[in-house]
């Protein structure tokens, strides 16, 4: 599909849409894309070198670093639930 055909199709879809929320979302997306494309800005430009380094470190961190097994989760949940019941029981006495 050529650029001109795509534009015509988009215009037709927009013209036949009555959903104001959808139209607003499409407008926001197009404006945001054009702004970013025209400025070629670095979204991280306002970060200090330290903050940028920390963010890059977090981005490359092992995604499983802070995970636990389902069995461990159930054990933590049981312990938490038992603690709640004990506190509730001590308040009623």
Q: Could you walk me through the main structural features you see in this protein, from its secondary elements to its overall organization?
A:
By secondary structure, this protein is mostly helical. It has a domain at 3-66. The chain contains 4 helices and no strands. It has helices spanning 3-15, 20-39, 49-59, 70-92. The longest helix is centred in the C-terminal third of the chain and has 23 residues, at 70-92. The protein is elongated and about 70 Å long.
Give the SSE layout:
Elements: H1 3-15, H2 20-39, H3 49-59, H4 70-92
Summarize the structure.
The protein is mainly alpha-helical. The protein has helices at residues 3-15, 20-39, 49-59, 70-92.
Number of helices: 4
CA-CA gap between termini:
75 Å
Q: How much of the residues is beta strand, in percent?
A: under 5%
Largest pleated sheet: none
Order of helices and strands: HHHH
The whole-number mean of residue pLDDT values reads 87
Give the helix proportion (percent range).
over 70%
Class from secondary-structure proportions:
mainly alpha
Shape: elongated
Number of strands: 0
The Cα radius of gyration reads 26 Å
Please describe the structure with a list of short key phrases separated by commas or semicolons.
93 residues; mainly alpha; elongated
